[in-house]
Amino acid sequence: MERLPSQLLLRDAWHLPGQKLVTANHWKKPKSDTTAFKGSSLVYPSDHRESVRSTQIRRRDITAELVNSLFEDPLLLLKTNWSRRCLLFDLGNTSRLPMRHTHNVSHIFITHAHFDHIGGFMGLLRVRLGAPASCTLYGPPGLARHIAGMLSGILWDRIGDNGPEFNIAELHGEILRCFCLRAGSEEVVVMPDRRVKDGIIHQEERFLVRAVELDHGTPVLAYAYEPVSAVVVSEEALSELELQPGPWLGKLKYAYMAGDHGLSVTLPNGENRLVGELASRLLYKQAGKKLVYATDLADTIQNRDKLVALARNAGTLICEASFSRDDQFRAVNNGHLTTTACGEIAAAADVEQLMPFHFSRRYEGDPERMYREIEDVFSRVVRIS
């Protein structure tokens, strides 16, 4: 007697409205309006009106994307919108990470060195062979030893002095202990320590990254990406100048942020005006919304307090919800959060939106159950499609 399947796994498919599923061509998307189903499962519609579905978090300054599915290795890609630079948070399976982004990764923020969070380093290393720029990795104590171990496991007899270079910064309390490693060299170069203030481990003109140490049976770092300021267009000034919004505003903001104040921009009425002149009338800066990334933490009072403080009023919290509330004993035994704990942390931090991820594979057949449990506590959820 023929048995019907209990589950259907769909991968590499496009769903064309009103049509059947077709095989996805990753190099050329269908021209019609499409919805992509990526990963190992489908995410079903929710009855909660505040919940939305997305594969990305798009903002003025960055685009953040969880590269792998809900049930796979953590890997967050953060693309800056003012340059080609990319940041990574964790290094799970990197096989789906586009090569064009891999070449542009400048900084990587590792939560801890369990395999599903650092195992993708070898894939990143393979792609970056011959890359002229070094890459900096931040993480908990012991990170340099783990990276050096992976580098030393390869025979580099044909690379000479041209191996990719990695700067490693380990957070030890309020001190960053720094090292320099190069593929093909056995030497671990010890660099000067750096003092950390207010958890800020990295800072540039446009953004900073703050870290806090949590407990997972081993030290784990949670991170906050915080824009120093965002450039915003004054709608009132646009109206006063009788100018219509359009692509020219994007060019204006890009040139202004790049410091090209003497560049000329063509307005909708055909006039050409200098970036500096227009910016003084149309643009102003405001504090940007932080994005917080946290995964693999035990549900303890100390962990909750630290993470809530880090995520307070964040625009987006990307947080693990590994186990169902009914499997709390498994969460406790494995040092992870339940769906309820994830939602409660988001609510306590009063974040604008929550993107839960890193679900246990136990729930691959019913991700809707996990989302419902989270939304019982916190409704502003972004579902990974």
Provide a quick synopsis of the model.
The protein is of the alpha/beta class and 385 residues long. Helices cover 23% and strands 30% of the residues.
Topology:
Elements: E1 13-15, E2 21-23, E3 35-37, E4 52-54, E5 56-58, E6 62-66, E7 76-80, E8 86-89, H1 99-102, E9 105-109, H2 115-118, H3 121-127, E10 135-139, H4 143-152, E11 165-172, E12 175-182, E13 189-195, E14 200-203, E15 207-215, E16 219-227, E17 230-233, H5 235-240, H6 247-257, E18 264-266, E19 272-274, H7 275-282, E20 283-286, E21 291-294, H8 301-311, E22 316-320, H9 328-334, H10 339-349, E23 353-357, H11 367-375, E24 382-384
Parallel strand pairs: 4-24, 8-9, 9-10, 10-11, 21-22, 22-23
Antiparallel strand pairs: 1-2, 1-3, 5-6, 6-7, 7-8, 11-12, 12-13, 14-15, 15-16, 16-21, 17-20, 18-19
Question: Can you tell me about this structure?
Answer:
The protein is of the alpha/beta class and 385 residues long. 23% of the residues lie in helices and 30% in strands. The chain is built from 11 helices and 24 strands. The chain has helices at residues 99-102, 115-118, 121-127, 143-152, 235-240, 247-257, 275-282, 301-311, 328-334, 339-349, 367-375, and strands spanning 13-15, 21-23, 35-37, 52-54, 56-58, 62-66, 76-80, 86-89, 105-109, 135-139, 165-172, 175-182, 189-195, 200-203, 207-215, 219-227, 230-233, 264-266, 272-274, 283-286, 291-294, 316-320, 353-357, 382-384. The strands form 6 sheets. Strands 5-6-7-8-9-10-11-12-13 form a 9-stranded mixed beta sheet.
